[in-house]
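S., here's the first fold you wanted:
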Amino acid sequence: MPTALGVVFLVFTALALLSIATRRSDVLLAAQLTADHSKCFLMSDREASADAHDVERMLADRYGWNIHVPPSSASAGVQLIGARQCLYADGRIPHVMYRVRGQDLSLYVLNGVSRHASELVTFGHRSQIWTRNSKTYVLVSSARTDGLPDATRYMMSEAY
C-alpha cells in the first residue's frame, strides 16, 4: 500500500511539474503539440474533407468549445480535414487538421492563454505561436516551406 501511494504521488507531481513547465516554455508546448500532430495524422483519414461550419458545430456540441474554424481556401492551398479533442500538459485542447499542398498542418487553440508570438522548430516541425482575443494559437507543420508561407498567413488572418 505505501508503495502504491508513493507511485501515485510521483505521477501527480510529475504531471504538475509538466503543466507548470509547459506554461513557461514555448519549446515544451511546441514539442507536445508536434508529437500530438504526428500521432493524429497517423490515425486520420488524410483524404477526408470537411466543412468549417460543421466542424465548429461538432466542437461545440461534443466538447463545449466555441471557436472559429478557418475554412478551406483554394487560393492559400489549405484543405480542412476535420477536428478532434487532444490532450496536452494542461488538459484537453481543440485540434483542427488541414492539408496544404500534400503536407499536414495542425491548428491548436488554447483558450484564455496569452503567449508572446514566436516561431520555432522541434522534431523537424515548425510551430508558429500567436495570441489574439485571449486565445493562443499554435500552427504546427513540416519544417519544409513548400506553400506554407501563404497557408500560414491565411491561418493567422482567419483564426480569431
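And the second, which I think is the more interesting of the pair:
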Amino acid sequence: MRILVVGGGGREHALVWAIRRESPDAAIYCAPGNPGTGGLATNLPIAPTDLDRLADAADAYGIDLTIVGPEAPLAEGLADRLRAEGRAVFGPSRSAAQIEASKAFAKEIMGKAGVSTAASGTFTALREALAFVDRQTEPLVVKASGLAAGKGAMVCATRGEARAAVTAMLDGGRFGTAGQTVIVEEFMPGEELSLLAITDGAELVLLPAAQDHKRLGEGDTGPNTGGMGAYSPVTLATPSLLARAEQEIFIPTLRQLSRQGVPYNGVLYAGLMVGPDGSLRVVEFNCRLGDPEAQAVLPLVGSGLVDCLWRVARGEAPSPLSIMDAHAVTTVLAARGYPDQPEKGAAITLPQVLPEGVVIFHAGTSRDADGTLRVSGGRVLTVTAVATSFADAQAQSREAAAAIHFDGKVYRRDIGWREVVRQKLGV
C-alpha cells in the first residue's frame, strides 16, 4: 500500500510511526513532514493547504490512501478534492469539518441533536456580545468560533475579563478571521476527557480515552495552549461512561450531521466535561486526531489501525482495533515564549539512547544544511512513554523529557496529575 499522510506536526509523526510499525513494507509519504517523519517516510515539501500540489502528488506517487492530519486542509476541502478524483481519503469533507472550523455550527448541530453542552450566545457585533456578558454569572468562557490552533478558548474568572476577551477578538482582531464570530458560554465545572471515534458516519470505533493538559504551567496554571501533554487510558473513562458517550454524544451528533446532508467520515474528536454529578457535556468537537492526544493514544493500538482507516476511507464501517493493556504518557516540550511568541532557532540535543517504550515525536523542528536540529515552532517535541503501569509511564516520559536539551525549553513535569490523585484516593 502507498500511503500519504498530510501534515508536519507531532500528530503526523505519530501517525507515520504507527503505520510504519504495523505495515513495515508500506510506501509512506508525508507532506510536508518533519525531521522525525523523514526517518520513517519520504517527506514531500508541500504545504498541507496546497490542495493542487497534494492532488498532483497523489497522482505522481500512485497513492492508495491519504490520511489528513490537521484541521486546516480539511476545512479547505482537501478530502473533497481527492474524493472527487476517486481517491480513498481518511478525513471529513469541508462541510463536515465545520464541526471544528465553526464553533457556531457545532453549537447548532448539538442543539438540534439534543447533545448536552454549555449554554451560550454567538455574536459578531461587539455591543451585543458585551451586553450578553454583563447578564451572565461568573466565571465565563469566551471562544473564537473559527480555527485558532487550539488556543482560541479563554477561561475568564470575571465578567471584566470576559469583556476584555470579547473586545480583543471582535474589535482588536485577536485570532484574525477566526475571532470574527465569538461564542460566550457558561463555565462547566468538572474534569475534561478526550474521546476519539473513528467513524464512517454511522458506525464507530473508540480509541482509548485520553486526557489533555491545556494550561502551560504545572498544576494547570498559566495560559491555554494547544496542549502540553496527555495520557491514556484514563480511569475516569469507565466502560459505562464510554457507552454513555457513544449513545448520548457521538451517535446523535453523527445522525444530525447526516440529516443535514453532511455525512461524516474520519475521526470525530469529542472534548467532554465530566461533571461532579457524572454528567457528560461537550466542550468542543474536532474533525481530526487530537495533538498531543494522538501521540499518547496511537502507541497503544497494537494492530488493526491501517485496515480500520482504509475501510473508513472507502466509505465502509470501521473494523475493530487491538488495544494494548498498557499506559502511555506524553510530555510536550515547548519553546520559550509559547503560546504567544515562541522563540525559534535554538539548537536541540537529543539523547543518543532511549529506554524501551519511549518514543520522541517531532512537532516544531527543522534541520540546517549541516544537519543541526533546531526549534522551528511553539511545541517542539513530544515524548511518549509506554509502560505496564501509569506510574512507570509517567516517570519515563518525564525523565526522557529532562534528557532533551535546547535553550528555553518549557515543559510540565506533572502530566497525569489527576490520575495520581485518583490512585492515591483509590478511585
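Why I say that: Residues 239-259 form the longest helix (21 residues). Residues 125-180 form a domain with the Dna Ligase; domain 1 fold (CATH 3.30.1490.20).

Talk tomorrow,
H.
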